[in-house]
Amino acid sequence: MFMIEYPLVHHGHHFGHVVHAFCNVQMLLTNGITLIGDYSAYQELLKIVLNLEECVMTSSEEAVITIAELIQKGASGARADNTKSMKAAIIDWITLKGQTLIPHIPRNVKTGTKVKLHSGQLQVAGDQWPLFLYADYSDDTDDPWNGLLHSGLLVSAYRHVFTLPSSVDQEPKAMWSGNARIQLFSQTDLVMDSEQFCNSILELLEDPDETDEVDQLMGWWNHFFPQIILLV
Hints:
10 helices, 53% helix
């Protein structure tokens, strides 16, 4: 095989970081060669891993599986790294200085929705989008696009992951009297189907019927980050 383990894991980390956090790499390689499924993600992977397609086409089935596993390892690691680094940061973002997150969950509470979510008895469906995706953390039932993916929390998360975590601290924190109303979720599947959640957003953004709204959304985000270049 013309590539060694470390570069493939490294490239997989970058792919998972900036292209697709929940991609099944082996399926992507198989479908990409046969032009089936998410061909755009396959093209992005080819840009990141030079000569990947040639290697896949000329290698044994066992070698292709190994390649996919190494890239998958990197992509999964990227998702885990981002999740771990943001867990504590998110609490700081939604909690006023000197205060605790309200309402807290008493240690002696054994029942209720929050406890069931924590234990895995209750799971939020991936297509039930939380309010923190929207500007002012409020959705518009008459206009689903109004404020969608415009929240300050998403901007903070983007700064944390793609620029520097310290850049978030340069922004004034929102003054939310009821900050616990924002329905945060864990990346663990015990609380929410994160993969379905991610894919449902991608499906909307890639829907040809939503092109005008997506262009306006991209314009809004480019206003915040006009000079950020993600290097392969």
